[in-house]
């Protein structure tokens, strides 16, 4: 990029996509600042395990110069799926891991930590909530902070997830409920305390599904298994059921009723989890989600193409970040770079959102009408 000075680039959100973009920019000699509303890197748990695909997540890690460090942490054996019969827990199908370890698993927290540790000191400004952005007539963008202050940048990148504060500058789209809810729970020290469940899950992921509901369990690192009770229901299902989500015993009792008739070894997930139940309604952006180009602002990851959690979102977010960083270095102006990036990212996201919607239907089959 031919410029008298480095462009001022702000990334909103210290998730996987935003951090990948920042890392690649720094690898290529550019300066960047990441603004994150959370108080620190350890302000909250970072979620479960992710499989990194060769042509997306791993390609982005390679561009970031972190692929070897990723492989040192990743679990190739985690790329395994076991599908069980819901009524008998009999093994119906098993696949992976691939011989070449093509989609190794890694805990999201470990991957985020790897990216954070790779950045120059001070890159991430913690506890800096963003309230919105205002594109300016000169092609720059004003970033508005929650404390009432503001700062102008040549480019503001919205990497701030499902409920992005940056997205309204480009699009009126808002996430909508998919009709599917995940209730998350977990198990600690599985190979010593929950041996039967550990054998049931295997080295990677386990799926059992019936009409409108499924159970998914996934190996994480350090002997932890994270489980998801998935079902189709109104977003306020707990209100109709008279269940207080803060009453863990009531949630457990209701879920056991919901999965009545399932094999007892699968209902173990509902009866004996070590961790509490966390209600997670699944939202997606309308598909296709596109926008007219506006200078000074763009989106990546969930802010641009929120989709169901079926293995595509994190990978695409990281590839978005890498592609945008490369465009910002190779194109002659910031605006040319953003146009080039959006011309690749938006069509790619349309294909991915279609595939992820089909993936959710496979994961939680709907009752035939």
From TrEMBL:
Its EC number is 1.14.13.-. Keywords: Cytoplasm, FAD, Flavoprotein, Monooxygenase, NADP, Nucleotide-binding, Oxidoreductase. Its main location: cytoplasm. SUPFAM superfamilies: FAD/NAD(P)-binding domain (SSF51905). It holds the Pfam family FAD_binding_3. Its cofactor is FAD. Residues 9-193, 297-335 form the FAD-binding domain. FAD binds at residues 51, 108, 302. It is found in: Cytoplasm. NADPH binds at residue 44. InterPro entries: FAD-bd (IPR002938), FAD/NAD-bd_sf (IPR036188), TetX_monooxygenase (IPR043683). It catalyses: a tetracycline + NADPH + O2 + H(+) = an 11a-hydroxytetracycline + NADP(+) + H2O. An FAD-requiring monooxygenase active on some tetracycline antibiotic derivatives, which leads to their inactivation. Hydroxylates carbon 11a of tetracycline and some analogs. Monomer. Belongs to the aromatic-ring hydroxylase family. TetX subfamily. Consists of an N-terminal FAD-binding domain with a Rossman fold and a C-terminal substrate-binding domain. This is Flavin-dependent monooxygenase. It comes from Streptomyces coacervatus.
């Amino acid at each position: 990029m031919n410029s008298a000075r480095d462009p001022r680039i702000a990334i909103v959100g210290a998730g996987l996509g935003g951090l990948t973009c920042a890392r690649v920019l720094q690898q290529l000699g550019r300066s960047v600042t990441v603004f994150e509303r959370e108080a620190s890197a350890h302000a909250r748990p970072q979620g479960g395990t992710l499989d990194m695909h060769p042509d997306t997540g791993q390609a982005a890690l390679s561009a970031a110069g972190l692929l070897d460090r990723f492989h040192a942490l990743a679990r190739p054996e985690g790329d395994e799926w076991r599908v069980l019969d819901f009524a008998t827990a009999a093994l119906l199908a098993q696949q992976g891991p691939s011989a070449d370890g093509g989609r190794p698993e890694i805990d999201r927290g470990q991957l985020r930590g790897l990216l954070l540790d790779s950045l120059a000191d001070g890159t991430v400004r913690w506890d800096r909530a963003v309230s919105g952005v205002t594109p300016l007539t000169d092609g720059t963008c004003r970033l508005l902070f929650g404390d009432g202050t503001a700062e102008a940048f040549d480019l503001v990148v919205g990497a701030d997830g499902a409920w992005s504060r940056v997205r309204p500058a480009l699009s009126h789209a808002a996430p909508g409920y998919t009709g599917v809810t995940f209730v998350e729970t977990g198990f600690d020290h599985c190979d010593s305390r929950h041996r039967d469940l550990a054998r049931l899950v295997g080295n990677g992921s386990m799926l059992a599904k019936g009409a409108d509901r499924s159970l998914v369990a996934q190996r994480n690192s350090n002997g932890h298994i994270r489980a998801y009770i998935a079902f189709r229901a109104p977003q306020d299902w707990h209100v109709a059921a008279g269940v207080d989500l803060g009453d863990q015993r009531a949630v457990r009792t209701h879920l056991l009723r919901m999965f009545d008739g399932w094999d007892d070894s699968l209902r173990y997930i509902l009866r004996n989890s070590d961790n509490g139940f966390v209600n997670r309604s699944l939202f997606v952006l309308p598909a296709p989600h596109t926008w007219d180009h506006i200078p000074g602002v763009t989106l990546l990851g969930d802010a641009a193409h929120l989709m169901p959690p079926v293995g595509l979102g994190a990978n695409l977010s990281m590839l978005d970040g890498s592609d945008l960083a490369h465009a910002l270095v190779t194109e002659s102006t910031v605006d040319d770079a953003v146009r080039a990036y959006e011309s690749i990212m938006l069509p790619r996201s349309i294909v991915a959102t279609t595939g992820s919607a089909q993936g959710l239907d496979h994961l939680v089959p709907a009752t035939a009408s």
